[in-house]
Amino acid sequence: MIVKGRVFVLFVVMILMVIGLIGIFVPGLPGNGLIFLSSLGYGMFTKFEKISVTWIVFFAVITILAFVFDYVASLLGAKKFGATKAGIIGGFLGGIAGVLLFSIPGLLIGQFLGTCIGELCYGKELKLSMKSGFGTMLGYMLGVVINVTIGITMIGVFLVKVLR
Length: 164
Prior knowledge:
Blueprint: H1 2-25, H2 32-45, H3 53-80, H4 85-122, H5 126-163
Helix pairs in contact: 1-2, 1-5, 2-3, 2-5, 3-5, 4-5
């Protein structure tokens, strides 16, 4: 009976981890945080037999780093390409509107257009506004690549530890 319970919990954990991977791309869904919490939950359920507390602490650290990097990557991408506070706010709002209206492609387009509109409202020329919009998208994409790498790493280590 215990084995069936572990298999079921592992199944649920894997579903949550896949949702976490999807959440890296979709604002509003938890990303690496859900992957971390899933591994923590499995560890607690199994009394850390297969996945040790040390690995859970490691997952916590890289999850925090992922959150920090995600924020910093978008900000630095926008700043590197000359975005002002108005452009950054516009990009954030545009990204939310875009994902609500058009899913993932809408997120990128919304960030770009939102940043451009914010920069134009601030008084920048169209060419400079578009440069800032490009920087915002580039920073976001860099953040996604890093977060996917971290998420896949956590899932991979988790599976190696749990399935051995």
